[in-house]
């Protein structure tokens, strides 16, 4: 695998180098008619890839006007990618906001720190009207599910990428 803390894989790539990769391979289905009034998306690392596709479907195709919130957890500030894309989505769709959370921040990181679970917990004291789409680290998925369930989110409205 090319990634991981301290990996020099991407630094050593040169323009024109050929690489192979294994992308997401699970099933992740949008359920827009489940009765929710807000959509929570939580991803860690490359779990953002399937979430990105769902976000595009929600915002661009289905044109859902309910609040759409993305929480994206990463280990290091250098792991952040696609922030300009998320900024553009937030500009183009007033119902969309995102929060990038870095667990192992350095002195240059000015954003949120810790785990996405804290921010979801703070933002949703009541989650009974929400749906959640979770992708990435199994510990994040378990922790976010526990928080949402404790705040009234229906188990049937917590969707996880199935492999």
What does this structure look like?
The protein has 163 residues and is an alpha/beta fold. It has helices at residues 48-61, 83-92, 116-123, 138-150; strands spanning 38-44, 68-74, 96-102, 112-113, 130-135, 158-160. Strand 5 (130-135), helix 4 (138-150) and strand 6 form a beta-alpha-beta unit. Helix 3 (116-123) packs parallel to helix 4 (138-150). The relative contact order is 0.20.
Largest sheet: 6 strands, parallel
Structural class of the secondary structure composition?
Answer: alpha/beta
What does the radius of gyration come to? 16 Å
The span between the termini is: 19 Å
Order of helices and strands: EHEHEEHEHE
How many E-type strands? 6
Low-confidence segments: none
Query: What is the count of helical runs?
Result: 4
**What fraction strand?**
15-25%
Nearest-integer average pLDDT: 89
- Categorize the overall geometry: globular
Strands in their spatial order, largest beta sheet: 4-3-2-1-5-6
In short:
The chain has 163 residues and is α/β, with parallel strands linked by helices. It is 28% helix and 20% strand.
Notable traits:
single chain, alpha/beta, six-stranded parallel beta sheet, 28% helix, 163 residues
How are the SSEs ordered, and which strands pair?
Elements: E1 38-44, H1 48-61, E2 68-74, H2 83-92, E3 96-102, E4 112-113, H3 116-123, E5 130-135, H4 138-150, E6 158-160
Parallel strand pairs: 1-2, 1-5, 2-3, 3-4, 5-6
């Amino acid at each position: 695998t090319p990634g991981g803390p301290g990996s020099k894989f991407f630094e050593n790539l040169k323009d024109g180098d050929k690489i192979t990769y294994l992308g997401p391979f699970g099933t992740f289905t949008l359920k827009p008619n489940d009765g929710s009034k807000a959509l929570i998306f939580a991803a860690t690392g490359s779990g953002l890839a399937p979430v990105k596709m769902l976000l595009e479907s929600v915002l661009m195709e289905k044109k859902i006007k309910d609040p759409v919130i993305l929480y994206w957890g990463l280990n290091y500030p250098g792991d952040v990618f696609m922030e300009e894309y998320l900024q553009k989505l937030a500009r183009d769709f007033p119902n969309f906001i995102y929060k990038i959370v870095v667990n192992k921040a350095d002195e240059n990181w000015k954003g949120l720190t810790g785990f996405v679970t804290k921010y979801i917990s703070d933002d949703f004291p009541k989650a009974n009207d929400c749906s959640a789409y979770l992708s990435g680290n199994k510990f994040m998925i378990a922790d976010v599910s526990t928080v949402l369930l404790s705040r009234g989110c229906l188990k049937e409205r917590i969707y996880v990428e199935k492999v």
